Amino acid sequence: MNYKVIFLFLFSTLCRADDGYRLWLKYDLIKDAGQRASYARSAQLIVLNSTRPVLKTAAEELQTGLQGLLGKPIPIVASAAGKTGSIILTVNPGQPQLNDEGYQILNRRNTITITGKTDSGVLYGVFALLRHLQTRQSIAQLSLTSSPKIQHRMLNHWDNTDASIERGYAGESLWKWYELPERIDPRYREYARANASIGINGTVVNNVNASSRFLTAEYLQKVASLANVFRPYGIKIYLSVYFPAPKTIGGLKTADPLDPEVNQWWTDKANEIYKLIPDFGGFLVKANSEGQPGPQDYGRNHADGANMLAKALAPHKGIVIWRAFVYKADGKADRFKAAYDEFKPLDGQFEKNVIVQVKNGPIDFQPREPFSPIFGTMPQTPLGMEFQLTQEYLGFATHLVYEAPIFKECLESDTYVGGKGSTVAKVIDGSLHEYKLTAIAGVANTGSDRNWTGHPLAQANWYAFGRLAWDHTLSAEALANEWVTMTLTTEPTSAKTVTDLLLKSREIYVNYNTPLGLSRPWTGVHFAPEPWQNRSSRPDWTAVYYHRADSVGLGFDRTVKGSHALAQYRPEVQRQWSNPETCPLPYLLWFHHIAWTKKLSTGRTLWDELCSRFYSGADSVGAMQKQWASVKKDIDPETFANVAGRLVTQQKEALWWRDAWVLYLQEFSKQPIPAPFKKPERSLKEVKELVEIYQLR
Amino acid sequence: MNYKVIFLFLFSTLCRADDGYRLWLKYDLIKDAGQRASYARSAQLIVLNSTRPVLKTAAEELQTGLQGLLGKPIPIVASAAGKTGSIILTVNPGQPQLNDEGYQILNRRNTITITGKTDSGVLYGVFALLRHLQTRQSIAQLSLTSSPKIQHRMLNHWDNTDASIERGYAGESLWKWYELPERIDPRYREYARANASIGINGTVVNNVNASSRFLTAEYLQKVASLANVFRPYGIKIYLSVYFPAPKTIGGLKTADPLDPEVNQWWTDKANEIYKLIPDFGGFLVKANSEGQPGPQDYGRNHADGANMLAKALAPHKGIVIWRAFVYKADGKADRFKAAYDEFKPLDGQFEKNVIVQVKNGPIDFQPREPFSPIFGTMPQTPLGMEFQLTQEYLGFATHLVYEAPIFKECLESDTYVGGKGSTVAKVIDGSLHEYKLTAIAGVANTGSDRNWTGHPLAQANWYAFGRLAWDHTLSAEALANEWVTMTLTTEPTSAKTVTDLLLKSREIYVNYNTPLGLSRPWTGVHFAPEPWQNRSSRPDWTAVYYHRADSVGLGFDRTVKGSHALAQYRPEVQRQWSNPETCPLPYLLWFHHIAWTKKLSTGRTLWDELCSRFYSGADSVGAMQKQWASVKKDIDPETFANVAGRLVTQQKEALWWRDAWVLYLQEFSKQPIPAPFKKPERSLKEVKELVEIYQLR
Predict the structure, then answer these.
(1) Catalytic residues per the record (chains A, B) (predicted)?
(2) What are residue A116's phi and psi, to 5 degrees?
(3) Same structural domain, B98 and B203
(4) Is the domain of A139 the same as that of A166?
(5) Segment B166-193, tens digit of pLDDT
């Protein structure tokens, strides 16, 4: 070896191979020479006859990927000059079968053509082809056509000006506001690459609890500099806006959406933004929610507020994404019903470029929620989906929870609004009500941690969200396997094992955390168990408000005898869920107050079933550890150790959750822990003391 | 090339070469084959006949370093078996010339012997030898002897339980408390390596505004797991403690240091800690300071508080580091005098294992301060030094400020307490008053940013601090050059240019920020200029309290006609500083209220001199950019671009500072901006509006 080779060898050992920074875009050399040769037959050249930025990105990404996978440089040329074995990137606005961002990939006689109707379509096609190679599929007769089912596929970052992230568990914000616009962190581009590779085309860079700063000229320059990095990847930038900004930074006396001066201020602001960022996406708004000001402060409604902003953005083709996450501080009311009650009456009153963004469930990103009853009930108002990728209620960065099953569960729920088969997916992809505007957002789980997501396997949630946003018919299993193969190991048996681990992880979490439809038993920062919590700054921010444990039983009665929230669903849904005998067990305590001794469909009483879930859930984490240990030989050592360590923490905390729940609920049920489970070794007092430690200032 | 070579090549390009993670421990191959061969003659084998952890670390670090630099594997063997060309690591407790942690390196006939009195001494010797190679010095006749002048060389981390860092500008905390003790981030070890390589042997992992959590059994396990990582690198762990912990977690009714139950609680707690961490370093305490509770809450004094803790730690050889950073919320008093007034009367009253930690200057880590008058005035009480590495008042992570000149300026200040030459360094290294205990601490500038310190060149501050803590006689220039050569480039001309850039950076910053002895003109978060700030929750937390601008002039009169803080210094110092004609210009406004029209030793009036400094300071940032541009060819591209971007931000902000000061002070001085400088293009109102943006919620 000459010194250069030695150097590289040493360098590569000094530099951590798998710190997770490369995500699923690793492009490590394909070890099987035959497979490399087979792929290489169709990958001698990349042909692109354009210098438009997104197409240039597409060609360069393809070059980078192929070079890594095949181990040789692939030139980009303007014309194939009759040579076969090339990959041709081409835009054809007349292409049938595709929508604006779709792509077609065809391999004919070892020449691959990637066609899009737009430049972005070509870029997505490139990543699809690379994914094919990364997952070692044949490309010999490749014929792929795919178009996104939803137009706006976005990440929402709850990132603050001081670089903290509300509900972030993977370091600080990716955006270095103090350095922008002068210094562009190379990571911004890596972020854009990763998103483009899974079809995400929009990003809201700041927290919905928004700072006025972002609308000042000073910060808009910073935002514009990020937009410049994202643009070649087909990604538009959006801002969360602080509704009273006309007062806080505009010097006006009011932010009343019907005030002409306020309207003018927003119009001027929109014009200013689009001068800097011609393809600016629009505004995301949290208003009259959890203390955030909004139009109701002036006696106006959500439509008044949204429409004012919409009119300011409309000339520039910008959109308003108005959040339906609203509820009053009323301990007597049922928070479940709040969003529906406030928004349904406004159906049809919103401007055309407004979309109402609804969380998947009626409360707040719980480990399991029934679908929000708003879906399907606003046929004249585009409704967008808001999922949460960051694990606010899913164990932060120490619990393994693969979220695609959560997303799928909601998307495949049947609203029955247009008869059987009227799934939530069909609401939000616009097919049910012919929405002209469709959107889906994931609250990002990214941060400045080197591996982006804290828990290495949480990258799969970002990945699966993007892929589902593109095509919600993909299965959670297929996406898990895809991600594992691209990211962790191409060895099929181990890939299958890890896929299995991912797939079962959410149910295991639910079992030890919130089984049978329990919800919100967390401490203030949403870290530790606190089902006994009964005091708070708001009556609806206590645990007991949600679980309603008493000497009789457990659960929130939302039937006609209770809050009657079930009335917000279609009769077909109501019929099934309002009867405790037919209500699916996972939703049981969401809708019913069930007696401790009531026998469930499992043959066990409620109390015994609860215990069974808490215990088996906690035990399953041990099984997950064994399963993970079995793939050690096929996983990078640093990644392996990282996950293994987190699983140990998860085990410890799963037991904590189990003990907190059973010991607390036992005070109401007065029942023994059923065999074969053993009484927790610690007392409720000890569990509480441990919880208190994590709340000490 | 075979595929492995191709793989490595590709891998190394995908993996960022110089993201700064490796700090100064890069060990890239020495390009000059002749030099490699010359070094290799004395580096065929590493000989170590021990399995003790610190010695094992020493051998492995030597192996890693040599392997990188020389490009070949170097075996570690138990005996040289008569072969020459080996490096022998050996401990000799009887070694003369050395103190406990010192080392001797001798090369005789191509066999190098690294001797320490202790295992740690050998480790430090190993890093010294590697440094020699990294800076390309001859080792043919090597004969090096070095012992640290100060015993406890520490970093203080102001890190909180939620991973935020008080005054941190390089990401979140390195310590992942939610993952500990189960998952050990590989970064903890890298942190220990870096510290050991520069002689740091202690680390306080949590904020002086301390959480009680760290003293709970739950958190002590986490702390112990970090201690286990640090131990093989000769680093002890310390904790900041919350003085009322006996109440908050002990369930006692009081934290009175004279209460027997309280004493017993601390004794028990110390015993509990040492059971988990046998080499635990001790406690750092901020008490009765900025709202932190302390012994004065019970009518006791600082000695009472410190001694109680000291007695609990003494059986285990732990120490108490008690901070002297105290001052009252009194707008009439002079904060300058507070620490001296409170602590000097306590001299001689502290237990033997207490050291009082004093900030370098009397106020709070300003860009330039005179030395704290406490140094030298407590001969019976060991005084430790507290420097700040994180750039709280030095422009966060976007301003280049090499801090060794700040440290040296203080260390070389003459207190005159034992006659001429009684420098601050001689106080804190114990030589002046024969302290049995010596310590120096740097408030860390590290965080989870990949490059550890945010600004790539701020690594030099960590490096220089450690090296000066070991030997305060080293020059700022030598250390800068050492760091640059090890970290950025071995090309001598470029290394010299960057060294020069580092050396002048602090004075440039002072010029545009706080020239002639100005202080504390910052906004609340210490980011932007706010010399006009006159309202605050405390009267002594305003800018006008410090600069005292009025129609007559500027500056804080601390002479006999003013607060008479100068009386806290020895007569020799007083004589020079109390006379504005002989007071050094850098300290002028620290001690004198000077008329705007007063002619200074520069030949300019105060007003003209101020303007000259503000303008030339801001202009110098432009010159720094040019200088940096000139070394481009010898610097890694990512690092180059990173620094270049930050220098642009610094330029912008330097102009901001300049304009804020001159426009604001002009309202008092009523003088024109002197030629050749041009009036700022913006108004004071515009400057204020920009500042307000950075204070918007």
Answers:
(1) 290, 364, 392
(2) -125, 160
(3) no
(4) no
(5) 999 999 999 999 999 999 999 999 999 9
Give the relative orientation of helices B302-313 and B260-276 as an angle to the nearest 10 degrees. Answer: 40
- Which pLDDT value is given to residue A493? 98
ipTM of the complex: 0.95
Residues A124 and A258 in one domain: no
Alpha helices in A288-384 (DSSP H): 302-313, 338-343
Our CA-based measurement puts residue A457 at a distance from the nearest CA of chain B, in whole angstroms, of 15
| Cα A179 to Cα B531: distance, rounded to the nearest angstrom | 23
Return d(Cα A661, Cα A670) in angstroms, integer: 13
- Residues near A11 by Cβ (< 8 Å), separated by ≥ 6? B12, B17, B28
Any idea what the CATH number is for the domain that residue A548 is in?
Answer: 3.90.1330.10
Q: Are residues B523 and B470 in the same domain?
A: no
Tens digit of pLDDT for each residue in B347-397? 999 999 999 999 999 999 999 999 999 999 999 999 999 999 999 999 999
Q: pLDDT category, A17, cuts 50, 70, 90?
A: low
**Does B171 share its domain with B138?**
no
Contacts of A645 in chain B (CB under 8 A): 179, 182-184
Assess if residue B576 is contained within a domain.
Answer: no
CA A304 to each of CA B337, B449, B533, B573: distance values in angstroms, whole numbers, following the listed order = 59, 43, 40, 70
Locate B69 and state its tokens. 């630099």
CA atoms within 13 A on the CB side of A274: 18
Write the residue in A67, A179, A218 that is nearest to B649 by C-beta.
Answer: A179
- Residue B89's pLDDT is 98
Q: Stretch A322-335: mean pLDDT, rounded?
A: 94
Reduced to 3 states, what is the DSSP secondary structure of residue B676?
coil
Is A78 within a domain?
yes
Residue B565 is classified by DSSP as G
How high is the pLDDT of residue B13? 40
- CA A240 to CA A542: how far, in whole Å? 28
Predicted confidence band at A357 (pLDDT cuts at 50, 70, 90)? very high
Q: Give the whole-number percent of chain B exceeding pLDDT 90.
A: 95
**Are B693 and A216 inside 8 Å of each other by CB?**
yes
**Is B695 in the A-facing interface, judged by CB distances under 8 Å?**
no
Q: Mean pLDDT over residues A586-603, rounded? A: 98
Cβ pair B378, B347 in contact under 8 A:
yes
Work out how many domains chain B is built from and give that number. Answer: 3
A116 and A158 co-located in one domain? no
Give, rounded to a whole angstrom, the gap between the first and last alpha carbons of chain B.
58
Taking an 8 Å cut-off on Cβ atoms, the answer to whether A212 and B696 are in contact is yes
**Residue B1 counted as domain residue:** no
Residue B13 lies in a domain: no
Give the chain A residue whose CA is nearest to the CA of B651: A182
pLDDT tens for each residue of A168-219: 999 999 999 999 999 999 999 999 999 999 999 999 999 999 999 999 999 9
Does B130 lie in the same domain as B84? Answer: yes
- Averaged pLDDT of chain A: 96
Containing domain of residue B52, as a range? Answer: 33-146
CB contact under 8 A, B182 and A7: no
The mean per-residue pLDDT over the stretch A101-118 comes to 97
Q: How far is CA A291 from CA A296, A326, A327, A555, in A?
A: 12, 10, 10, 28
Q: Is A290 a catalytic residue?
A: yes
Over 50: is that where the pLDDT of A3 sits?
A: no
Q: What is the CATH number of the domain that holds A320?
A: 3.20.20.80
State the SS3 of A12-65. HHHCCCCCCCCCCCCCCCCCCHHHHHHHHCCCCEEECCCCCHHHHHHHHHHHHH
Among all chains, which residue has been given the structure tokens 């958190």? B219
Q: What are phi and psi of A641, to 5 degrees?
A: -65, -35
Q: Decide if A358 contacts A348 (C-beta within 8 A).
A: no
d(CA A442, CA A437): 17
How far, in Å, are A146, A348, A477 from residue A482 at the CA level? 17, 41, 9
